[in-house]
Specification:
Blueprint lengths: L17 H8 L1 H8 L4 E4 L3 E2 L2 E2 L4 H11 L5 E4 L7 H4 L5 H11 L9 H12 L4 H17 L12 H7 L3 H14 L1 E5 L13 E4 L25 H9 L5 E4 L11 H10 L3 E7 L18 H11 L5 E6 L8 H5 L2 E4 L7 H9 L13 E2 L36 E3 L10 E3 L3 E2 L3 E3 L3 E10 L5 E11 L10 E10 L4 E9 L5 E2 L5 E2 L3 E8 L8 E6 L1
Parallel strand pairs: 1-4, 6-7, 6-8, 8-9, 9-10, 15-23
Antiparallel strand pairs: 2-3, 5-10, 11-12, 13-16, 14-16, 16-19, 17-18, 17-22, 20-21, 22-23
Helix pairs in contact: 5-6, 9-14, 10-14, 11-12
């Protein structure tokens, strides 16, 4: 439950019901272990008063007893030593004993296991059988990886020199980059831009940047391979004179004369590309923010540039969902480009100029305001849902609706796709049966569209309150220009399972909503009844 730390503060405590833990936070781990993962890490946080690295219920009872995990558990960086700071262990010896007996097989960094295990075994505080068990798990995993036959299989210098920066890898990096870009907004079809015949001003701290494009935890990055936005645009445009580049401001501090230079460049351009957002350090580990908006100096830059009246395309660089405001929010086109790596400039240019259409979809929701966080699409309706903000005494904020600015699953392409009403193969689903949901997609544009059809459900009445929507499937399809395609997704009895009051998977007969939609806030639901 590390992702549920109080106030979104890294390393902070988590307190939640076992129902929430088992319904939301444990299933991704179980899926990874079912797929063959042989190592997992004990987190920094405490859960319901017990630090993860000392939590026998998590690391042994559930992980080993319920799930049959055969691999090994490694502490996060000194997390077993941090049992002392948590107030859960008296000293290093106590921390080593607690962690080992809870199920932490390997100690990372602290050295507490090397220092204390011999004496812990000699004193009888840790059985030798537990040490043998931990060692056996580590050795078994090394054997499975073939490390006894070749201990240095991942450290071949000749292979590293041959593949690092190879054409094959850079081509893949460029493809991964452009497929990760999400087109949030494109009013009036401003994008894609023509490569010739117009003057472009690239403004913002990330225009010529070749450092903040790798993202946090890119420890072994090679900045010589980095392609900045400026470099990517110049390579695509050919005419270097048609592109002007002005920084305008630093990421978190203004530059003397920066705004004036940016306004001049914008005034002389036909379109402005505004490269703003977060540095990689701002979204790294231990970089929690109380305000997830664009830093003030960049907002001031955006307002000044927008005041020129020139069309603005915002190119966001970021590691999280952000609060967008003012001229950034109001820009006619916005691209979420995250940290795309070495081929950033080429990948963004591919999308901007339409050599490739955007195909990415949001894996998170962008809130209207920081104060809505944490915001997730699968929230509960509450007993007082708000249909509109004009209603009183409802679950709503004073400043905004209880909805996302850009919801989970959202992402535009360069062709308009309309969804028909959802059609179900039957009005009822038999017990242990299934139904099929079908929708017709129509592309009224001049180029084909890559669309991600998302299947959501809602259980209308259950013994445990259910989210307003839950994603149960998706399918990417190509819709030809001027054409239509019919898309069908199956919904099985197993898709309706939820954890009941006894924490066991259950299904209850009743009414269900079904959506086939482009995101978690779109579409009209069809309904069916599950019968026993």
């Amino acid at each position: 439950a590390y992702g549920a730390a109080e106030a979104g503060l890294d390393y902070n405590s988590t307190d939640m019901s076992e129902l929430e833990l088992r319904s939301v936070y444990l299933p991704p781990f179980k899926a990874a272990f079912d797929a063959g993962a042989l190592s997992t890490m004990s987190a920094f946080n405490d859960l319901n008063g017990v630090p993860t690295s000392g939590n026998k219920w998590l690391l042994t009872d559930i992980l080993r007893g319920e799930w049959g995990f055969a691999g090994f558990v490694v502490s996060d960086y000194t997390s077993e030593e941090e049992l002392i700071a948590h107030g859960y262990a008296a000293d290093g010896r106590d921390a080593a004993r607690i962690a080992l007996m809870a199920g932490v097989d390997m100690s990372m960094k602290s050295g507490l296991y090397m220092k204390h295990i011999p004496e812990l075994v000699q004193s009888g505080d840790v059985p030798m059988a537990r040490v043998d068990e931990a060692v056996r798990r580590v050795l078994m995993t090394k054997a499975a990886l073939g490390l006894f036959e070749n201990p240095y299989r991942g450290s071949d210098v000749r292979t590293e020199r041959r593949v690092t920066g190879s054409r094959e890898h850079l081509t893949l990096a460029r493809e991964a980059g452009r497929k990760s870009i999400v087109l949030l907004k494109n009013e009036g079809g401003l994008l894609p831009l023509p490569k010739t015949g117009q003057r472009i001003a690239l403004i913002g701290p990330f225009g010529g940047d070749r450092v903040d494009l790798f993202g946090p935890w890119s420890i072994f990055k090679d900045e010589k391979l980095a392609v900045s936005l400026e470099q990517g645009l110049r390579a695509a445009m050919g005419d270097g004179a048609a592109l002007s580049v002005v920084k305008g401001s630093d990421v978190e501090t203004p530059i003397a004369g920066g705004i004036e230079a940016a306004v001049m460049a914008a005034s002389q351009a036909d379109v402005v590309l505004l490269a703003v957002g977060e540095s990689q350090n701002m979204s790294a580990e231990a970089q929690s923010r109380v305000d997830i908006g664009i830093p003030e100096p960049q907002l001031a830059l955006a307002e000044a540039v927008a005041a020129t009246g020139k069309p603005v395309v915002v190119i966001l660089r970021h590691g999280r969902a952000m609060e967008l405001s003012g001229a950034v929010k109001d820009a006619p086109a916005i691209l979420a480009t995250w940290f795309l790596g070495s081929e950033t400039g080429h990948a963004v240019a591919d999308i901007l100029f339409g050599d490739h259409a955007p195909t990415g979809r949001l894996p998170v929701s962008f809130p209207h305001f920081s104060g809505q966080s944490p915001f997730h699409y699968a929230h509960k309706t509450t007993g007082r849902p708000a249909a509109s903000r004009s209603e009183g005494f409802k679950a709503q904020f004073r400043e905004t609706a209880n909805a996302a600015l850009y919801p989970f699953g959202h992402g535009l392409t360069y062709a308009p796709v309309q969804y028909s009403a959802v059609r179900l193969s039957a009005p009822t689903m038999a017990w242990n049966g299934g139904i099929t949901a079908t929708v017709t997609l129509t592309n009224s544009g001049a180029r084909e569209a890559s669309e991600v059809v998302q299947l959501y459900i809602r259980d209308r009445a259950a013994s445990i309150t259910q989210p307003v929507r839950l994603l149960k499937g998706f399918r990417r399809v190509t819709v030809p220009a001027g054409g239509s395609v019919e898309v069908s997704l199956p919904l099985s009895f197993a898709d309706l399972l939820f954890l009941g009051p006894d924490l066991e998977p259950t299904v209850e007969p009743g009414l269900f909503d079904v959506w086939l939609a482009p995101n978690a806030q779109a579409g009209e639901a069809a309904r069916f009844t599950l019968t026993r």
